[in-house]
Amino acid sequence: MNIILFGPPGAGKGTQAKELIERFNIPQISTGDILRAAIANQTPLGLEAKKLMDAGSLVGDDIVNGLVEERLKEKDTENGFILDGYPRTVEQAKVLDKILEKQEKEIDKVIALVVEDDEILKRITGRRVSKKTGKIYHIIYNPPVDENPEDLIQRDDDTEAVVINRLKNYKAQTAPVLDYYIEKGKVAEIQGERESKYITEEIIDLLENNCNI
């Protein structure tokens, strides 16, 4: 079972991925993780990526696509995988199709978590991190009890201006990927503004009944 978890930042993709990993025993694959692993293992693509990053340049699609292709060849993906954060563009989606075709695989389902911008802002801007313990809290959903308020900080990435910009970029670059998969009949939209366990139940039910598991 090969699936893509799709949705804006803060939609809950990471939370759902953990549940799906446990349920179906398939790996979660994110470009950030495989990039870090390639750099740590000093693979040819990893070394090339590190050179670009050290120079302050963006890692291009050729390297990212190559890393994904290498990762999808690994043994733990034989029974399936969960792609999270890739593909980010329609061009990447087209390359992914070619990669999977060579490996005699295909995407079975794209799970799109639907969450409104106002909720995304509330979720991300409400995060706080303790300088002392490193624990992550939320001022509404998971308020700190035993922390000194002076030890709690808002990360730079969690400010309203940054989140609004990330959402803008998501809609411009990544949202069209969903249309690409809708045309292929691969997309299932899941309402993401509910308690996490109900979202998980719906996704698992959908996959078990539609992916020949």
Low-confidence stretches: none
Q: So what's the oligomer here?
A: single chain
What is the tally of helical segments? 8
- Average pLDDT confidence is 91
C-alpha Rg (nearest Å): 18 Å
Terminus-to-terminus distance = 7 Å
Counted beta strands: 8
Q: Helicity level, as a percent range? A: 40-55%
Large-scale geometry: globular
- Strands in their spatial order, largest beta sheet: 2-3-1-4-8
Summarize the helix and strand pattern as letters. EHEHHHEHEHEEEHEH
The description of the largest β-sheet is: 5 strands, parallel
Percentage beta strand: 15-25%
- Secondary-structure class: alpha/beta
Summary, kept brief:
The chain has eight helices and eight strands. With 213 residues, it is of the alpha/beta class.
Report on the architecture of this protein.
The chain is an alpha/beta fold. 50% of the residues lie in helices and 15% in strands. It is built from eight helices and eight strands. The chain has helices spanning 13-24, 31-40, 44-54, 61-72, 90-102, 117-125, 160-183, 196-210; strands at residues 2-6, 28-30, 81-84, 109-114, 127-130, 136-138, 152-153, 187-191. The strands form two sheets. It has a five-stranded parallel beta sheet with strand order 2-3-1-4-8, sandwiched between helices. Strands 6-5-7 form a three-stranded antiparallel beta sheet. The longest helix is centred in the C-terminal third of the chain and has 24 residues, at 160-183.
